[in-house]
Design a protein that fits this description.
The chain is α+β, with helices and mostly antiparallel strands and about 270 residues long. It has three domains: about 10-55, no CATH class; about 65-155, no CATH class; about 160-270, MucB/RseB, C-terminal domain (Phosphorylase Kinase, domain 1, 2-Layer Sandwich). It is built from nine helices and seven strands. A seven-stranded antiparallel sheet has the order 1-2-3-4-7-6-5, with helices on both faces.
Length: about 270
């Protein structure tokens, strides 16, 4: 917000775009909505923007980039941040706080209130790479937690949002080189939220999203390379991995370890073996 001027008026008119695209945090979104209800000029501008968006979304006008492009962009951002990190290796590394780099990402998110989601995502990616120790190399648990945190920070938890497993599974067709199993666990207390593409260990992977009592579970999966997944914790998040039907599964959540194991057992029981 700038200089005490009314939200969405004058130099803050650009916030109407962020409001329309759902890029404001909850508090500022409510403030903007309340202001628009009382300001005819802003209400008219918002209607104009909505009409323009609908016009651009018509067939023959809009072209939706493939989901694989998003994964390539994420990889490019990570590579660029990695080069920046290597350039600064001469500087002594400062020890991380007890909560680790994931806590830094959360702190950064609080400072990015109102910043478009794309910029927040790029910054969180860069921060996730910069705080890794250069001598550790690729860190799978760290990448998994980074993917989990990114999905929460950038308000991009899903590419396809639905609780219907018969919609989520075919959505991945043509976007991944394998067919991820999608199971309904609602009767077990784990609600399917949807799915998305992510990027782990230099490859596009599938991510299935489940929820339990407000706790998000990111289930990353891709063809197994024979390594034996393990269980552990990183920066306050529990990580649980297993292999099944030629795939590697990794569940990441702030849900307690006992219930995360219940999730694994229930998912494994209902998916192909």
């Amino acid at each position: 917000m700038t200089s005490g001027r009314d939200l969405c008026c004058g130099e803050d008119a650009a916030l109407l775009h962020a409001f329309l695209d759902g890029e404001l945090d909850a508090a500022n979104s409510l403030r903007c909505e309340a202001h628009v209800a009382l300001c005819p000029a802003c209400a008219a501008e918002l209607d104009r923007l909505r009409a323009l968006r609908d016009l651009l979304a018509r067939d023959g006008v809009a072209w939706r980039a493939p989901a694989s492009l998003r994964a390539k962009v994420l990889a490019s951002l990570a590579d660029e941040a990695g080069r920046a990190a290597r350039a600064g290796e001469a500087a002594p590394a400062r020890p991380l706080a007890p909560n680790g780099w994931a806590a830094r990402l959360h702190g950064a998110a609080r400072r990015w209130t109102g910043v478009p989601a794309g910029l927040a995502l790029a910054a969180s990616l860069a921060l996730a790479v910069l705080v890794m120790r250069p001598d550790q190399g690729p860190d799978l648990p760290g990448q998994l937690v980074a993917g989990h945190v990114r999905s929460l920070l950038a308000s991009h938890l899903t590419d396809v949002r639905t609780s219907d497993q018969h919609v989520v599974k075919p959505w991945f067709s043509g976007k991944t080189d394998f067919s991820p199993p999608v199971v309904d666990l609602d009767d077990r207390g784990f609600s399917l939220v949807g799915g998305r593409l992510d990027y782990v260990e230099n490859r596009v992977v599938a991510a299935l999203i489940y929820m339990r009592r407000g706790h998000v579970i990111n289930l990353f999966l891709w063809p197994s390379d024979g390594r034996r997944p393990t269980a552990g914790a990183r920066d306050g998040y529990n990580i649980l991995g297993w292999r099944q039907a030629g795939l590697a599964f990794w569940a990441v959540s702030d849900l307690n370890a006992v219930e995360l194991k219940e999730f694994q057992d229930d998912f494994a029981e209902r998916s192909p073996r």
